[in-house]
Amino acid sequence: MKITEVTAYTPCEERQDLDMTYYYPLTLVKIDTDEGISGVGEGTLETKCLTVATCIKELGDGYLLGKDPLRIERHWQAMYRGSYWTGGPVINSAISAIEAALWDIAGKNYNTSVYNLLGGRYRDKIKCYTGVGGATPEELADNVERALKDGYTACKTMAFGENPSGRTIDAMEEAEQRCKAVRDRVGDKIDLMLDCHGRCSLEEALGLVEKLAKYNVRWLEEPFFAENMDALSELRKKSKIPIATGERLYTKWGFRELFEKQAAHIIQPDPIHCGGILETKKIAAMAEANYVNVAPHCPYFHVALAIAIQIDACTPNFLIQEGGRIRGKWLVKEPFEVEKGYIKLPTKPGLGIELDLDAIAERPYKPSPPRPGRGYGYMSYREDGSLNPR
Q: Which residues are identified as catalytic?
């Protein structure tokens, strides 16, 4: 079997927010072979979807064409090391998307699910959590209560908002009000995870975990970027709330120092950024040896979720999966469904999905207009005109 074509797609999902229409682009890959077996993958990288698509085409045309798609480890090493400039989100997202598509081909070739090629099914269904929002503490509590009624046992929300004043005390007060509103409404019936999107300093994070510990927070996510493992390690050792991080780390080498310095209780590798399916399994094995659980990052679309589920199914130290509100169901012909906070394991060969190419063609790439009061991408500003870290 030989690879005959590597195609990148960059469709868009349309959304409404603040009375404006926004377009959320994604990056997909489809790999075809001379035996009629095709595989799909996703490498969606916010603000860089076209860049990743170009990288996929470069790797496809420059290396993959004519190769045996089943030699997955060899191809991963060739793409990673052959690029010379290793690391970073763009190259690793392209490699991750391609690698997942190769596993999809392998599963279809052997007529089995990918998880059966990686050790076999460890669990029968995948526990997932949903993201919830709310402009006010009361609105957040309403949405958490709704998630509980929908069968979820865990949900995640932002610890605090944009904090335009930049004052630490304002952010902490907002975070406490949000937690208190949720616990007053539903008690401890649902696990509550808080995401900081890397906005805190070490000082702020230490104050936050001290102030919020009484609300039984399941984890505090990405308090600051995982660029300083010594700082993360200090926070992890002093915190009464489990610290989770890892969505912006790439490959096993990116996680090595985190484990060596015991910098997190829970890791969140993103399979479509950190190197793909097998690389995520390797990272999870490193975590298992350090008594660390794995909660894969996946706020993206249906293909990314299908990739993550294959890993979750065969990983002993898997904790819970992001993606309970399944996005991009239009991408595939038979989308997954969440039942009482769980997703059933797919049993069809490969990733268990089939792209709807007609639906993808109907949603071509469109650049999104800037949001009011914001700059490029996720950038926002404080009252003094300085950038708000995100």
A: 197, 297
